[in-house]
Automatic annotation (TrEMBL):
The keyword Membrane applies. This is TraM recognition site of TraD and TraG. Its main location: membrane. It is found in: Cell membrane. Residues 78-196 form the TraD/TraG TraM recognition site domain. CDD domains: TrwB_TraG_TraD_VirD4. It comes from Anaerotignum neopropionicum.
Length: 263
């Protein structure tokens, strides 16, 4: 009972009760029409991070049930979950199983991590299963040794030619030449650690990893709508959540006079 009470204690906060007492997200409708849904949480205070993991659990369960019961197994609109800072939102229950099953329902999950070790710290032995169920992996750069070591092993080796010469001087002088073929990591750990910041490594299932240029976001047609282009485009949560009516001089309103209530 103590453990249960401790887990439910955050729901005794008025602000949290107001947030969770009714459903305004309609998670089960995300696969019916094109929708953008954002979960924005503090990156310094993890007190309420569990709400995001709960929302993802509900999302996957509702959409899988709807895909099976309503649409014959596949949602009409693909639902892609871009889970940024996946290690900082709390553990999503049974994620290792969900990663293997949601794809058949037209749902995908993209886990963004600072280092692969973050996933292992959160999901322990199930981390390898989660990674194994990802059809693609993109490495944007970093220097965490565990990530670099596993990436080096995944990319495999290449064949190189070595040419050695020897010159021995003594009572009799002799020369020697030696040709060999050796295996070398496609990219060693030290090469990955200093990889050019404009490059990335992409690995797709069934395809050899390849080095590619990162996309230049400034060339996208919608770049003008980002805050990086114009600070006035910055999204303000306070302004969005504010319900205070701001009137303008030319606005027209209808005024109703309310009478007394008859008892």
């Amino acid at each position: 009972m103590i453990s249960c009470g401790a887990r439910l204690a955050p729901f005794d906060i008025k602000e949290l009760r107001d947030l969770t007492e009714y459903d305004e997200l309609e998670l089960d409708t995300l696969g019916d029409r094109k929708t953008a849904l954002f979960f924005i949480i503090s990156d310094t205070d993890d007190t309420f991070n569990f709400l995001v993991s709960m929302a993802y659990t509900q999302l996957f369960n509702l959409l899988c049930e709807k895909a099976d019961d309503v649409y014959g197994g596949r949602l009409p609109i693909h639902v892609r979950c871009l889970i940024d800072e996946a290690a900082n939102i709390g553990q999503i229950p049974k994620l290792e199983k969900l990663m293997a099953t949601i794809r058949s329902r037209e749902i995908s999950a993209c886990l963004v991590l600072q280092a692969q070790s973050q996933l292992k710290a959160l999901y322990k032995d199930n981390a390898d299963t989660i990674i194994g169920n990802c059809d693609s992996m993109i490495f944007l750069g970093g220097k965490e040794k565990t990530t670099l070591k596993e990436l080096t092993e995944t990319m495999g080796k290449e064949t190189i030619d070595t040419y050695n010469t020897s010159d021995t001087r003594g009572s009799q002088r002799s020369y020697g030449q030696n040709y060999q073929k050796l295996g070398k990591e496609l990219m060693s750990i030290d090469e990955l650690a200093v990889m050019d910041g404009s490059k990335c490594i992409l690995q797709l299932r069934g395809v050899r990893p390849f080095l590619s240029d990162k996309y230049d976001i400034t060339k996208h047609k919608n770049y003008q709508y980002l805050a990086d282009y114009d600070k006035r485009n910055t999204f303000s949560i306070e302004k969005y959540l504010s319900t205070k009516l701001k009137t303008k001089p030319n606005d027209v309103y209808e005024v109703y006079e309310m009478g007394e209530i008859e008892e």
